[in-house]
Amino acid sequence: MKNSTLRIGFILSLLFSLTAWGQAYEPLPESIEKRTLPFAERDSTLSLDFYQMVGDTEVRPCVIFVFGGSFVTGRRDAPVYNAYINSLVRNGWKVASIDYRLGLRGKYDQVGIFNTEPLENAIDLAVEDLFSATAFLVSRAGELQIDPANIILSGSSAGAITSLHGDLYEKNNHALRAVLPEGFSFKGVIAFAGAIFSTTGKPEYVRQPSPTLLFHGSEDKVVPFTKRRLLNKGFFGSDFLARVFAKNNYPYYYYREIGAGHEVATAAMMQRLGEVHHFLRTAVLAKSPYQLEATLVPLKK
């Protein structure tokens, strides 16, 4: 976990994001409406895009989506996410894709094992904004016709890191959760190439984490697949988190892609929609207490 490794990882993630946005992706169909709503004032206004089927008057569960970009770049309405958001809405979910402050913009080259404070601050800023968006949605649940008892987190890359930390902080009664309503709890997490950063050793939960769906490539050079650790500081990736969940009898679904890299952060959002909807139906809505692992191995040509 050296400075150069982290810097290269962030740069690769940035380039990957910029390249992805330049491609052609599924548009927002006329059957889905989008409203942009401000939810917090920081140095600038933070907003969310709220998606639902046109004319939908039913109270529905809601997915809060957090975009990726190494806490340096990215935007809530990047077209690379359209297929994922469209699929969620068509399958009975409302979706809120949120802004958050990019805490490593101009600072990513300062991060290293002996200076993790910029990364810690960036994660906390993102989680703080995520919690503000959540509190806003709960406060407007009647107007937006969402079920506040069924709100789940989902994110890609830095957004997956934010989502995993959001659930960890909520379950561990972190000070940042004070903005959330009393008794509120997230009901699920979907993380595309995510990890948890810790300065106190492996992640531990005071209360059982929400059912969690993990996607990760075994050759990810940006967000660690297993862990990068020196003493008590480290990034704990999906493969490591799955071991923690398995040992503690927590519900989780985990899809590891052998040979794949950080492209899983967005590719899985288009290629694994069936797995996503199965998780939402069984682990979140039906509350089926399962642990599921699948290893995807490419066949030799």
Structure report:
With 301 residues, this protein is α/β, with parallel strands linked by helices. The chain has one domain (3-296): 3-Layer(aba) Sandwich (Rossmann fold), CATH 3.40.50. 33% of the residues lie in helices and 26% in strands. The protein is built from eight helices and twelve strands. It has helices at 3-21, 82-90, 117-139, 141-144, 158-171, 238-247, 264-271, 273-285, and strands spanning 32-41, 45-53, 60-66, 94-98, 146-156, 188-192, 195-198, 212-217, 227-230, 233-237, 252-257, 291-296. The strands form two sheets. It has a nine-stranded mixed sheet with strand order 1-2-4-3-5-6-8-11-12, sandwiched between helices. Strands 7-10-9 form a three-stranded antiparallel sheet. Helix 3 packs across helix 5 (158-171). It is globular, with a radius of gyration of 18 Å. 45% of the residues are buried. Residues 1-22 have low confidence and may be disordered.
